[in-house]
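so my prof wants the structure for this chain in the tokens format not the other one, which i didnt know existed until like an hour ago. anyway here's the sequence
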Amino acid sequence: MTPVIPRPRRRSRVLTIVAALGLLSAPWPSLAAAGSLEMAVKASYLTKFAPFVQWPPRAFAGPTAPFRICVAGDDAIGGALDQAARGQRMQDHPITVTRLASLDPAVVANCQILFLGKSAGEMLRGVAGQPVLTVTDRSRGGGGIIQFVMQGSRVRFAVDIAAADNAGIQISSKLLGLAVEVAR
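here's what i got, hopefully its the right format
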């Protein structure tokens, strides 16, 4: 008789994905450090989203070109993102962080992920149709493909599938399974 191997429960798969994203954290710090913890978690998310997104080949200058996480607008995420990206790779692409003074289409075309601070709505129009994963803060206007959402003291995210389709990128069902909201 063949042994029966139990299927993993959905909760186990979700916990595995959360652990893969590196979002299970140590004990929560005091409220004084909550702002810096929030930025550190968002920075971690920005570097961990990449393996769960598929970009068209035209999104990269070459097979080993840098994978660019760009920051435009308010740079509150600053040093936390630099630290989270240090030494990281996305397949054959080293991850680099670039700060943008403007959304010049020629410069944005070299970004794979674009984190938008304040005034996200205006900036989003400048990248419409580009193969760029736009990430915004819902509390600051939102509107990106991925939007950070605070639930209590925890950073979560929502995903807009229509915006991803418009940009020509695909989001993994594994990442969609972790989103608190998926807009189709």
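also thought this was worth mentioning. The longest helix spans residues 34-48.
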